[in-house]
Amino acid sequence: MRDVSRRKVWYKNKKIIGAGLLLILLAAILGLHSLNGVAGGSIDNSANFQAGQTPKTPQLIKVSGQNISFTYNDSFRVSPSQKPASPQLENFNYVTKQSPFWQLAVGVRSLPSNNLADDGSYQARANTPKQYKLSQWPINGRTVPVFSDETNPYSKAAFVQSSGRLATIALSGGGDSAQMDALLQTVVKSLEWKN
Q: How far is CA 80 from CA 15, 33, 103, 182, in A?
């Protein structure tokens, strides 16, 4: 009889532990989701089509933050962004609305030295040439360093500096590399710094 009651207690404890683990997992997922809250800025959607319509040519959407403004095309939707913490100033994240999945991330951080070598993200790529191939893109009369992650189907990050600040524009996903390069160039070319 005692063995049966022990089994009941063990089974009840097992259910409680399982429910507790499930709650912890759910809280972790929701916590990560909430960390990705929008940092700030405004989006001008005036060029967007009505729901259900499919544009023949992607329309450009202008984003205006505290430090930068830029455009991206309407094949993306806003994805929650992590609230910036020093030295990060702003974050903007977007994902495609349909397959193939692409992710666009634009971040602005403080770089008081104006030296790219002092940025950890840039330096990590520069120190790993077997994984990250560096190319220089001529954009708007300046040379923009762009790293390509050779271990992914498509993953590139461009680094644009201005007055003690650094914008990192990263695009990753699967699909047509030429199309993705064109989109990354559109965003980088449209980037404007605010005072």
A: 34, 7, 12, 24
